């Protein structure tokens, strides 16, 4: 019987392609793709993610892997005519991890595998360069020691520093061969001391150990944490790329570089990159020596540069996007070591998308899919003046956008104290905890040296709209000494710094801030924004305009705004809102009008109550007239009063204390009695929403009258009012029937008196699980549903929305219960399931039922895609987020159209 053929676990670069990213990882798939294109990629092979998954599950490699690696290695050796670690002219390889998604928290690279005490001499002879050979060997022991054997990197770096000092060398290229030889011995001694065994001399053992270390690196705490945060599944595994070494450290005609086909920071067309002569691997990005620009590289090595430029163009045409490339020149010969679609800033994303569209490389739909609402959101924050002089101290993660300058403080109480005396402060901590909350509230910006984009600092800062840079690992924060040290420079409490939450950059001193040109465009139109813009900014603004207009043409979802005042409504309209999805009327009862509610609560007779309501009526009517005028011709959904009445009354304890101290005024005792009567243990679940309407006589009637009279007044004045009345917190269709009976009567009366037909739709919010589950019945009495996903999330999870974000969520995010707050981004599995149920059931009863959402999620990019898929008609969000929602609604439509493939 024939033995079944084992699965293919190793692929030569020549046999793969970019479609095989699941199996070969991003790096392997792209190396294969470049090989297929005939680009100069050193030969090599990729060990699949499947081999990794087997190894992690079984604790050992699949049986056939050893043999498959041997065969691949032999093919490689045959092709190059050299053998791994041979004593004469040895073949050396690099071993690099490469998962489907780039994961900076994982093991990266071991170079020069195959060198040992003998082959180093062979390499020296073959290259005719002893210094190069020993430099390569010391790099191997150092990288192998650190990434494979887990020895702290500083052990090697400290020795390297000490050797440089002894030799009087300013940089590592100046180290003479003897010093390097000595360094190798010292490094090997460090390995022996740390691991209890000698540095492995067998080349194949080095390769196998490096491969296993890459597999193991998938499950390090750091990698797991990174995946949790970035929502990358844990079961993908990583591939391992084994590639014949080419050397950038073979003297002055060699070097290594990184480049981008366009500037990833600004989106400026034209290649952009750094090159370092006589260097290898990470030297370029490590910033240990000054790099050269591509223009310098062109002067230095015109032939290699010309070839690189041609390849860059080829790759960009092939990938139809900005490519990020690593290359090496070995004695005048160019080699490509890596490429991928490059990361970019928000501004670059918009500019590049429209550039590629104009170059007819991508379609307008694709251009739309290449930018995100989050990127547009970033462009709306004020920015540091790009023309100002700046001194970069370090860079961390861009956690919460904005541009903030202030004095450094190191504790929450200091932040609060200094802010109270009018200082702008930046709270700098190693990481923040819930105890730091007061300081974060007081600070203009938050800076931490640890933690990622979903660390406590980041989450809380974003929630509060506070600028935040986190995980700036170069910062050494000493809270006790009230100092922070960065690259040897000590900053003290009170020193001024500036942080850019959109780029993660940290600058010394105060930087001037300018308003966002994109906001200028949104508020005042294209012409006005272009009039003030320099060339680069003008291109950005034009790009945003074009992409947004395409989104508007493409989207199915309408976008409305949550706005309570005529001023907000006007701004929302300028931002592109197509109506108001939620006007919260409670905001109209604050300020001077609070006393009227107080009187309403204290009224002892029906007459007194009516009197107060009669006083409120003209005020409310005037509010609505203004609002309808600002949104003339567009729908305006006005919600009847929702919050419990005690929210309008004085605080219970404060009032009791005042009375106990004998400082009470006339009527305070009565007021206290009313406050006590209305006190609730769980006000969010108490006398609010439609329950108020049913239990407080005349209140909703007054509001409905004000709305209908305002609409009639606008109509008589020649306007086009399109008001809709919305009832909050309904749980049963019966509640809605009862309220509707009253509303319908009032509207009919006003229509008759004014001699106009108002046609005011009446609908309800869906904010309770019961409402969603009984939507079929509720739709009998509602002409529209608007999902109040704030309350629906609160009631579905049983989380008090005002309390949990601060107290529980930081821990829940850390423990991975969820990766993002369900109040920020819709919980599709739970709340989303209720929404889908309600949509289907509601439309069963009423096919033309209008469906929208007005919770915070209406402006959240990810949630907008859900609402599109769920078949809603519109989303409603705060005016500032309207452009983001427009963009994402367009992207969602394009995505659906393309079957999810764009
Ligand atoms: C909601 O619950 O989602 C909603 C929009 O209402 P509010 O936030 O005012 O409770
Ligand atoms: Mg609500």
From TrEMBL:
The keyword Ligase does not apply. Gene3D superfamilies: 1.20.80.30, ATP-grasp fold, A domain, ATP-grasp fold, B domain, Phosphoenolpyruvate-binding domains, Phosphohistidine domain, Pyruvate Phosphate Dikinase, domain 2. The active site is at 456 (tele-phosphohistidine intermediate), 854 (proton donor). Substrate binds at residues 584, 639, 767, 788-791. Its cofactor is Mg(2+). GO terms for molecular function: ATP binding; kinase activity; metal ion binding; pyruvate, phosphate dikinase activity. It comes from the Bacteria. The keyword Nucleotide-binding applies. It holds the Pfam family PEP-utilizers_C. Mg(2+) binds at residues 767, 791. Residues 22-60, 67-290, 300-351 form the Pyruvate phosphate dikinase AMP/ATP-binding domain. Residues 423-504 form the PEP-utilising enzyme mobile domain. It catalyses: pyruvate + phosphate + ATP = phosphoenolpyruvate + AMP + diphosphate + H(+). Belongs to the PEP-utilizing enzyme family. This is Pyruvate, phosphate dikinase.
């Amino acid at each position: 019987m024939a033995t079944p053929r084992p699965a293919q676990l190793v692929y030569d670069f020549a046999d793969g392609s970019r479609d095989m990213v699941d199996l070969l990882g991003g790096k392997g798939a792209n190396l294969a793709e470049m090989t297929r294109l005939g680009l100069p990629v050193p030969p090599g092979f990729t060990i699949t993610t499947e081999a990794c998954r087997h190894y992690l599950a079984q604790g050992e490699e699949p049986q056939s892997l050893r043999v498959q690696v041997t065969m691949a290695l032999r093919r490689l050796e045959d092709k190059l005519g050299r053998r791994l670690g041979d004593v004469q002219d040895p073949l050396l390889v690099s071993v690099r991890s490469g998962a489907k998604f780039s994961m900076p928290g994982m093991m990266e690279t071991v170079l020069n595998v195959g060198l040992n005490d003998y082959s180093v001499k062979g390499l020296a002879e073959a290259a005719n360069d002893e210094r190069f050979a020993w430099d390569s060997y010391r790099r191997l022991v150092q990288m192998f020691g650190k990434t494979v054997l887990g020895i702290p990197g500083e052990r090697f770096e400290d020795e390297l520093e000490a050797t440089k000092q002894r030799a009087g060398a300013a940089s590592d290229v100046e180290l003479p061969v003897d010093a390097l030889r000595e360094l190798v011995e010292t490094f090997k001694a460090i390995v022996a001391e740390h691991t209890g065994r000698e540095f492995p001399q067998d080349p194949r053992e080095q390769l196998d150990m490096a491969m296993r270390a890459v597999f193991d690196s998938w499950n390090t705490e750091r990698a797991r944490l990174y995946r949790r945060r970035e929502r990358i599944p844990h079961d993908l595994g990583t591939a391992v790329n084994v590639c014949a070494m080419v050397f950038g450290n073979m003297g002055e005609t060699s070097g290594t570089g990184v480049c981008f086909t366009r500037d990833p920071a600004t989106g400026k067309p034209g290649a952009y990159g750094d090159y370092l002569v006589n260097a290898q691997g990470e030297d370029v990005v490590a910033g240990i020596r000054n790099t050269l620009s591509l223009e310098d590289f062109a002067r230095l090595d015109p032939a290699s540069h010309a070839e690189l430029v041609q390849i860059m163009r080829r790759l960009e045409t092939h990938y139809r996007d900005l490519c990020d490339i690593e290359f090496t020149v070995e004695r005048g010969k160019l080699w490509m070591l890596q490429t991928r679609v490059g990361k970019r800033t928000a501004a670059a994303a918009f500019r590049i998308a429209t550039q590629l569209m104009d170059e007819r490389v991508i379609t307008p739909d694709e251009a739309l899919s290449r930018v995100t609402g989050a990127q547009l959101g970033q462009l709306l924050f004020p920015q540091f003046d790009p023309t100002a002089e700046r001194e970069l101290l370090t860079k961390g993660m861009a956690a919460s956008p904005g541009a903030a300058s202030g004095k450094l403080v190191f504790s929450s109480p200091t932040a609060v104290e200094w802010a109270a005396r009018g200082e702008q402060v930046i709270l700098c901590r190693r990481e923040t905890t819930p105890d730091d909350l007061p300081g974060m509230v007081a600070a203009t910006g938050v800076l931490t040296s640890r933690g990622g984009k979903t660390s406590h600092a980041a989450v809380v800062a974003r929630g509060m709209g506070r600028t935040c840079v986190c995980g700036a690992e170069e910062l050494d924060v000493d809270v006790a000494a009230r100092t922070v040290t960065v690259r040897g420079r000590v900053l003290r409490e009170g020193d001024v710094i500036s942080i850019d939450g959109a780029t993660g950059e940290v600058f010394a001193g105060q930087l001037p801030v300018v308003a966002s040109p994109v906001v200028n465009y949104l508020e005042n139109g294209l012409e006005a924004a272009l009039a003030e813009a320099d060339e680069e900014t003008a291109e950005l603004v034009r790009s945003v305009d074009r992409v947004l207009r395409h989104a508007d043409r493409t989207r199915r979802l309408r976008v409305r705004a949550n706005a309570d005042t005529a001023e907000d409504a006007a701004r929302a309209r300028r931002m592109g809102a197509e109506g108001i999805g939620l006007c919260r009327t409670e905001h109209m009862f604050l300020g001077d009008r609070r006393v009227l509610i107080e009187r309403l609560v204290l009224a002892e007779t029906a007459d007194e109550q009516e009197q107060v309501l009669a006083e409120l009526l003209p005020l409310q009517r005037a509010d609505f007239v203004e609002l309808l005028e600002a949104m003339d011709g567009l729908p305006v959904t006005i919600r009847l009063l929702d919050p419990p009445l005690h929210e309008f009354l004085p605080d219970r304890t404060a009032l009791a204390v005042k009375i106990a101290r004998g400082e009470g005024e006339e009527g305070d005792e009565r007021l206290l009695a009313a406050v006590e009567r209305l006190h609730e243990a769980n006000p969010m679940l108490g006398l609010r929403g439609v329950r108020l309407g049913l239990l407080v006589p005349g209140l909703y009637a007054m509001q409905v009258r004000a709305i209908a009279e305002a609409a009639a007044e606008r109509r008589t004045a020649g306007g086009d009012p399109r008001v809709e009345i919305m009832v909050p917190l309904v749980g049963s269709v019966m509640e809605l029937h009862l309220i509707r009976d009253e509303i319908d009567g009032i509207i009919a009366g006003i229509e008759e008196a004014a001699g106009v037909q108002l046609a005011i739709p009446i609908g309800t919010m869906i904010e309770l699980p019961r409402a969603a589950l009984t939507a079929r019945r509720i739709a009998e009495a509602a002409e529209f549903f608007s999902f109040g996903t704030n309350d629906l999330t609160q009631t579905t999870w049983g989380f008090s929305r005002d309390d949990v974000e601060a107290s529980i969520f930081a821990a829940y995010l850390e423990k991975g219960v969820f990766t993002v707050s369900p109040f920020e981004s819709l919980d599709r599995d739970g709340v989303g399931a209720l929404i889908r149920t309600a949509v289907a059931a509601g439309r069963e009863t009423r096919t033309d039922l209008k469906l929208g959402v007005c919770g915070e999620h209406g402006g959240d990019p990810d949630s907008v895609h859900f609402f599109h898929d769920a078949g809603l008609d519109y989303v409603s969000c705060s005016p500032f987020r309207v452009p983001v929602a427009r963009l994402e609604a367009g992207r969602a439509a394009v995505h659906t159209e393309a079957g999810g493939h764009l």
